[in-house]
Structure formats: C-alpha cells, structure tokens
Amino acid sequence: MTTYDDRASLTDLTATVERVRSAVEGVIEGKPEVVRLSLTVLLAEGHLLIEDVPGVGKTMLAKALARSIDCSVRRIQFTPDLLPSDITGVSIWDQQRRDFEFKPGAVFAQIVIGDEINRASPKTQSALLESMEERQVTIDGHTYELPHPFMVVATQNPVEMEGTYPLPEAQRDRFMARVSVGYPSPEAELRMLDVHGGVSPLEDLQPVAHAHEIGKLIEAVRAVHVAEPVRRYAVDLVAATRTHPDLRLGASPRATLHLLRAAKASAALGGREYALPDDVQALAVAVLAHRLLPTAQAQLNRRTAEQVVEDILGTTAVPAATPPQTPDLGMGRATPAYGQQQPRRL
Q1: Looking at the structure, do residues 260 and 146 belong to the same domain, yes or no?
Q2: What percent of the chain has pLDDT over 70?
Q3: Which residues are 142's β-sheet partners?
Q4: 186, pLDDT greater than 70
Q5: How far apart are the C-alpha atoms of 108 and 74, rounded to whole Å?
Q6: Domain residues for 166?
Q7: Cα-flanking dihedrals φ and ψ of residue 114, to 5°?
Q8: Strand partners, 154
Q9: 294 near 305, Cβ under 8 Å?
Q10: Are 24 and 38 in contact (CB under 8 A)?
Q11: 345: Cβ–Cβ under 8 A, 6 or more apart, which residues?
C-alpha cells in the first residue's frame, strides 16, 4: 500500500513526466500514443524495442527520449562486424601497472540506444542479455554494476528487410514492450516538413529532467497498488497464451512481471495510485505480442501475434469494480475493490 510520502512524490513528479512528454512530442510529430508507451516503459524500469520500416523516425524517437533527460547516453550502431566486447567492454593488459585494466563498453550508460539491433550477428546481440536483465556486466570473472536508471532503447527493421537477423527469443523476452511508430498522418507529415525542413529539432532539444528525478519517479511507480484480482487477471492473460492453438510459444513468467510493472507505470501516468484492469488491457498487445511465436498453420492463415492477443483479451474474464469501496486511510481516498468477473466488451 502506498504511503503519504509516496503519493505526494507521485503527484509532484507528474509535472516532470509532462515536461519530458512535451519535449519528445516536439520532435516526433503526431505520435502521442508512441511517446506515452515509451515513457511508460522508462518509468517501469523496462527496455523498449522500436520496430518499423526505415525512415519513420525510430532513431529520432530514441534520441529525443534520451536527450530530454540529463543523463549519460551512449549509442551503438549494430553492424555485422560488431563484436560483443564493443558492447560490454574488454580487459586490456597495462604494461606499466603490470595488471589488466577494464575498459568499459558502450553499455555503461544510463540510456543505451541500440540502432538497428537486428543487423548484428546473434552472438553480438546476446552480449546485451546479462545487462538488460541483471543490470550488470561480467568480464573475466569480475562483475561491474551498470548505472541507475538503466534503459536500452533498440530499433530494428522488420525481418523481411535485407541484411537482418531475427532476434533470439531470449533477447525479445527481455524487452518490456515493442512499439511500431508507423507512417504519420498527412497533417502530421505537413507539420514535419515545416519543423524538420530547416534545422532538426533534435539540435535544439535541451534536457528537461534529471536522471535523479526519473529515479525518484521510478520509486513512486513501484509503490503503486495493484489489487489481487488485477494481478490474477494479468496471470490469466499470460497463461492463455501458453495454451492457445495458434501459438507454439507462449509468454514467459517474465512477461507477467513486465505486464504488471507497465500497468503500474500507466496508472502513475494517469495520476492514479492504483492500477486498473484497463491498464493491463491497454498494454497487453505491446508487452506480450513480440514474445509469442505463431504456429505454421497460423502463419499460413496470416494470423499475427497481435491478433491472437486481441482474441485472448476478448475471451478472458475481466475483474469488475464493485461497491463497496475500500477506504484508503492515509489520504482519505478510496481504492476500488474488484470482485465479480465479467467478459471484456469489445
């Protein structure tokens, strides 16, 4: 249950999130949902995978998010000849000291931008596995902690594009959410010509939040309350992917944890101190779909993982908020109690 101090910090730091959102939307035209999901992943201590065709602003989104926060940022351009040591670092023999000295790689930053991650070999892609899950790097038996907060924002082209390698299942499972930027509307594209036609707005983008503020906001998000029926709802959604006839690989327990964390961050962005089933529903496709593998028959029928998740959302019972409400004695507010189950209305 949240405390008075947690609620106060959550209210105060909402303004910080609004500043970051406005800064990013000043660069990315007409994509408020994409920006909101990016901020949700940041506050949930997750990693973001941006997948789409070339030229729609994937790297621009990653850069805008990184530059809007005053923190350390490193960019990795993934290429076929990139080595794992280029990412994690390497121990070099120092002749003067007569000892090995560790040279940190590009992953030692608070926000790491991995551009076109699926153009490197699977061996190089796997160099990020430990850092993304455990927020540390082990080299020659020594473990080095990564800075906090730590987030990987990776972009990739669809696997049908020339020169790409599909991400391994273990790699995809470590990304909290996948987002597709998509083509802008004609009106947004016209505004983009006005804004980006001369100087790129990225060059004028100044940090509007400090890494310490983001860290405090992450702590506030951790304190968001999730009722037991909402937790069970998230478990039911993930469990349904493991038995669905159109899937040969369902979502992992890590996916359940990521879905719950993202729901808490979404509630905080909405100014709430408790998560609702609506938060889980809104994020289910972004959090679950990229982890699923359709069967061969489903692929022949042109069934996508996103469609399967939508089907599961439509058939899984949703907790309904029913009176009486449970009073929150700390601030005199009421937290909805969840009781009866009802199917989702589409």
Answers
A1: no
A2: 86
A3: 139
A4: yes
A5: 8
A6: 1-223
A7: -100, 100
A8: 49, 114
A9: yes
A10: yes
A11: none
The full length of the chain comes to 346
CA 227/CA 238 separation, integer angstroms: 17
Are 169 and 293 in contact by the 8 Å Cβ rule? The answer is yes
Q: Which CATH number do you get for residue 294? A: 1.10.8.80
Residue 83: how many CA atoms within 13 Å on its side-chain side?
Answer: 5
Average pLDDT over residues 111-116: 91
Which residue, of 198, 223, 248, is where some domain finishes? 223
Scan for tokens 């899984």, then name that residue: 316
| Burial per residue of 276-301, b for 16 or more beta-carbon CB atoms within 10 angstroms, e otherwise | bbebbbbbbbbbbbbbbebeeebeee
117 Cβ contact partners less than 8 Å away, ≥ 6 residues apart: 49, 78, 125, 154, 155, 156, 167
Indicate whether 251 and 160 sit together in one domain: no
Summarize pLDDT for 245-284 with one digit per residue, the tens: 999 999 999 999 999 999 999 999 988 889 999 999 999 9
Residue bearing tokens 């037991």: 228
Interatomic CA distance for residues 161 and 63, integer angstroms: 23
Instruction: Respond yes or no on whether the N-terminal peptide bond of residue 277 is cis (omega within 30° of 0).
Output: no
Buried b (16+ CB within 10 A) or exposed e, 84-98: bebbbbbeeeeeeee
Provide the token pair at 156: 């990739």
Angstrom CA distances, 142 to 83, 87, 88, 133, 147, stand at 19, 16, 12, 17, 16
